[in-house]
TrEMBL record:
Record InterPro entries: DnaJ_domain, DnaJ_domain_CS, HTH_DNAJC9, J_dom_sf, J_domain-containing_protein
MF terms (GO), sorted A to Z: heat shock protein binding
Regions of compositional bias (Basic and acidic residues) in chain numbering: 194-205
Name recorded for this polypeptide: J domain-containing protein
Pfam families: DnaJ, HTH_DNAJC9
Stretch list, region Disordered: 189-209, 239-260
Ranges of Basic residues composition bias in the record: 248-260
The J domain, residue ranges: 16-83
Keyword Coiled coil: yes
Annotated organism of origin: Petrolisthes cinctipes (Flat porcelain crab)
Top-rank lineage group of the source organism: Eukaryota
Amino acid sequence: MTGLLDSCEGFFGSRDLYQVLGVEKTATEKELKKSYHRVSLKVHPDRVNPEEKSNATQKFQTLGKVYAILSDVDRRAVYDESGEIDDENIAPDDRDWDQYWRLLFRKITISDIKNFEAQYKESEEELNDLKEAYLDGEGKMGYILQNVLCSTIEDEPRFTKIIQKWIQEEEVPDFNLFSKETKRKKDARKRKAAKEAEEAEEMKKQLGLGDTDDSLKALILQRGQQRAGEMDSFLDGLAAKYGGGGGKGKKKTNRKGGKK
């Protein structure tokens, strides 16, 4: 049987339990729980295709074991001192890790999403995220809409006015990809958004999901973001707000990919 550290390296690219969760070694119990929630939302087996289910389940199990060790004061102390773990005393793979997860975290509901959006939109946090996305994407509006939480094509005119004001006040550089974007590109973006919205609504009907459904599938469909990668920043933000403590968190922006 593969040891936990080997599994961590295989699934997460690191044998360091703290790196798997994306936290510092000095992380508090609250920070550990919040990070576990954030990462688990990304790797949860419910989010993948049937053919990827087995691999995703093993990854989810590995993550659960990592958190189980670091959330135990004594086992964490032993790991911190030696860098080793006792595989014989780790909960087995056939443990119901999904049930374990649900005991730790309540489900994110459609109501949670709407409340989050109401608090986030036009807030100082949204402005900071918008500026960061504008700079990281070098003015690409497609990138901005993908990386600012809760944003849709309807937010584009509002974002444009804000960015234009920043440019006039020399708060940000004037990227050609923003100020000289062609009408053809803007229209193509609107058509793509409309098509994705139609597909999401159709799939929602096929699955019989209503606005009150609180499953992760409903969450994905409600936002109209079909690709898992496009959900990451949105889920990060919700995890930071609702994952074990309710503290106001900051999303992680993908600086390397996703520019369109």
